[in-house]
């Protein structure tokens, strides 16, 4: 299958329907489904800052040829207790766009964007032991596995482990090699 050409772009009003679907359709978002969320929350957030805030943001992953949004990437400020901050990124694609090489490239593009426009040293991402697609995507996007975070989230009726990955500023970008 040909590589699908993508770009990251700011959220537009018509994208809010997708965010509302992820908040209200059980399982659409994948393993991150943790129950119904307020479907009006994306509308309120969009009105405040268009999902481009100092502490958390989203960009849409757009398929260039079809000019349709395949999903979105997100990032939020995190710290380990001291003054130094790092980003934690996330991604969700609609099912019809998964498995076509979009996820790893969108996350690699987001890292390049964040290292270009913000001075952070570290970008991290967590995923689930059963999410093979995201584990492979993160490695393809230049991330390294740091370890298992035990019993870090409650989902689907039980406490689950997570896998923690990171890409630091000096790690090579797979998009520039
Ligand atoms: C996880 C997700 C972002 C991955 O993006 P994607 O576009 O589907 O994955 P890609 O096409 O970029 O594939 C990357 C690698 O994973 C592999 N892969 C893709 N889907 C897979 C699957 N279902 N099972 C196993 N491997 C898979 C690909 O083969 C590729 O590896 P390869 O180059 O060695 O062949 C996407 O599937 C998604 O949005 N899923 C639902 C939400 C989610 O899980 N988000 C992450 C939460 S932590």
From TrEMBL:
<dbReference type="Pfam" id="PF13302">
    <property type="entry name" value="Acetyltransf_3"/>
</dbReference>
<dbReference type="InterPro" id="IPR051531">
    <property type="entry name" value="N-acetyltransferase"/>
</dbReference>
<dbReference type="InterPro" id="IPR000182">
    <property type="entry name" value="GNAT_dom"/>
</dbReference>
<protein>
    <recommendedName>
        <fullName>N-acetyltransferase domain-containing protein</fullName>
    </recommendedName>
</protein>
<feature type="domain" description="N-acetyltransferase">
    <location>
        <begin position="6"/>
        <end position="170"/>
    </location>
</feature>
<dbReference type="GO" id="GO:0016747">
    <property type="term" value="F:acyltransferase activity, transferring groups other than amino-acyl groups"/>
</dbReference>
<dbReference type="InterPro" id="IPR016181">
    <property type="entry name" value="Acyl_CoA_acyltransferase"/>
</dbReference>
């Amino acid at each position: 299958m040909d590589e699908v050409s993508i770009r990251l772009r700011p959220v537009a009003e018509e994208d809010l329907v997708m965010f509302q679907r992820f908040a209200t359709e059980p399982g659409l978002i994948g393993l991150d489904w943790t129950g119904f969320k307020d479907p009006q929350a994306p509308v309120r957030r969009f009105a405040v800052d268009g999902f481009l805030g100092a502490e958390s943001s989203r960009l849409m992953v757009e398929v260039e040829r079809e000019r349709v949004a395949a999903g979105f990437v997100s990032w939020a400020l995190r710290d380990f207790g001291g003054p130094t901050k790092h980003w934690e990124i996330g991604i969700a694609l609609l099912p019809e766009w998964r498995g076509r090489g979009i996820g790893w490239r969108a996350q690699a593009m987001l890292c390049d964007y964040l290292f270009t426009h913000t001075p952070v040293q570290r970008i991290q991402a967590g995923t689930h032991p059963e999410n093979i697609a995201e584990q492979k995507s993160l490695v393809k996007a230049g991330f390294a596995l740091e370890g298992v975070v035990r019993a870090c989230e409650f989902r689907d009726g039980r406490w689950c482990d997570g896998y923690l990955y990171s890409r630091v500023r000096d790690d090579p970008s797979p998009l520039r090699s």
